[in-house]
Amino acid sequence: MKRDESEDSSSQDDHPTKKQRTISPRARYLGLTEFINHGFSPIVGQLKSRMEDFLVTEIGEDGKLCRLESFDIPARVKVERNQGIELVDLSDDVQAGLTQVIDGSLAVFSVSAPSDKGERTALHKSIGAFNDKLSTETVKEGEQSMIRVSLKKKGFLGNRDRERNKNEQYLHFTLLKWNITTADAVLRMSKLLQVKPGNFSYLGQKDKRGITSQRMCCRFGEPKRFAGMNRAFFEANKDKSEDLVYRSNYLAGEFAFGKDELKLGELSGNSFIIVLRDCDPTTQHNLDQMKHMLEENGFINYFGLQRFGTDGNTHEIGHFILNKDYRSAVMNILTPNNYHKPEVWRALSYYKESDDAKAAFEMLKYKNCVEGILLRSLSGQPSDFKRALKSLHYKQQTLYTHAYQSYVWNRLVSKRIQCHGTQVLEGDLVQGEGSSVRRVVAQDIPHTDFSSVLLPMPGYDIEMPDNSCRDYLLDILSEDNMTLEAFQGPTGKEFNVSGCYRNVIFKPSSFSAGVMNYSDENDKLVSTDVDVVANKSFERQNVGNKIAICLKFELARSCYATMLLREISRGESE
């Protein structure tokens, strides 16, 4: 996976539109080299000049848009505490120890834990009934199992809620956010509410630069505490006559309790409103042609650059992990770069120079970031890099291995388009019954639309096309000293990647494009959900000598709007 840092404006033939395309070195390195629409004038403009120019709203599996319209607190079903459990009498010594913990004269008090699970549960409940400020956990102290008692941390929600109905284990809510990634929003909420980041789950990642609305959930979340995060925003915007103030980076509402957590991919797709500014005046004459082109041909369903992280190297880390080179994977993550915050950069630079993980860890103010988790693990076992990787949350581990899958798929689809264009081939994969796939036979080709053709994401459990695409995939893996068997970890689910299938192209739905006039780069051109929530009126003045194009469309889950923009701009929006 060698980076190509040279600029490229290919191609080998004299097609006029191919002369116009400019592929950045980073895009070429990540496999984004081809286009499927030709013979049109590119639609080029400034993307994300303002965060209000990029609006994303999730579409649920029920087809409804994810909107933030209510901040009501749902009622909870009252559950009798300790129902069905007979409490035990606590000895005088135990009560004395608990009292010392409560008054602060003792930080931790330990009680011998019964070997019987039922008796152990009863003792936990009895200590909690003694005073609800006490937190208990079963731990090993040498060979002895003990129940360790301490004061609950202030505001701590914990991983157990003994008073919550089984149908209310998860707090579901809508997060309306701006100028922050989904992952960073989770970390910030985790710190503010003192909830473990692993308690949160969501349907998909959303970009930083933009205003996005998505459904999320938090295990054992309390709606009143989440609603409290909104206070600063509404305080700053209480005067309806003044301009909108973007206090904080998110709002939470549409609260509801549920028994199940949300899982990645459990959505229909996303709705987009995107404004391209500073467009050429002649662009408005090409909109009908562009609309027809996308509806007929679609765009190559590449994984966008954001899939590979800010530094564009998450797939390299995934490659190291799958090749069992755990040291290189960890050291790659812990290499300081310009995208790190100053305190993280200083800590990683110190670790690079001193190899002292413990001291570097102590330099971090926020210690639950990815770098902090790795340094904490290496503080105890400096050379156990596999252990350090496994200390990361499972979602973070798979982010790296899935990025490598995406990198290989991008290269595979580019090779397919280079060699065969949009021609359906005998042996291609298409959707079969249920979640299965089937191969195209010769008599199916005239009746098979190219938009239904799938290419496999590499993994240990995939069907392969019965044509040249099989060889392309194996050759790409061979260049990286990889095989399909490498995607199956040595034991259990350890770094396992089973594989899946992805459409080669995608056609957007509900596509529309309109022209806007404006005079100043700071002019706001579209109303947002934040305006609606803050009850701020918005009236756009369609005057000025500058041209903007407003695009509206819907894409299925895991499709990237930036790749649609790449197709219509010939790479200028990468």
Q: Could you give the distance between the termini? A: 20 Å
Looking at the structure, what is the overall shape?
globular
Give the biggest beta sheet. Answer: 9 strands, mixed
Rounded mean pLDDT score? 89
Q: Structural class, from helix and strand content?
A: alpha+beta
Q: C-alpha Rg, in Å?
A: 27 Å
Summarize the entry for a quick read.
The protein has 574 residues and is of the alpha+beta class. It contains 18 helices and 18 strands. The longest helix is centred in the C-terminal third of the chain and has 27 residues.
Defining traits:
single chain, 574 residues, alpha+beta, 31% helix, 18% strand
Please give a structural write-up:
The model is unreliable at 5-20 and 156-160 (pLDDT under 50). The chain contains 18 helices and 18 strands. The chain is an alpha+beta fold. 34% of the residues are buried. It has helices spanning 16-20, 25-29, 92-103, 117-130, 182-193, 223-228, 231-236, 287-297, 314-322, 326-333, 342-354, 357-362, 370-380, 385-390, 394-420, 468-479, 529-533, 561-569, and strands at 46-47, 54-59, 109-112, 134-141, 144-151, 170-178, 200-202, 211-219, 250-258, 269-277, 299-300, 429-431, 437-439, 454-457, 500-503, 505-506, 509-518, 546-556. A hairpin with a 5-residue loop joins β12 and β13.
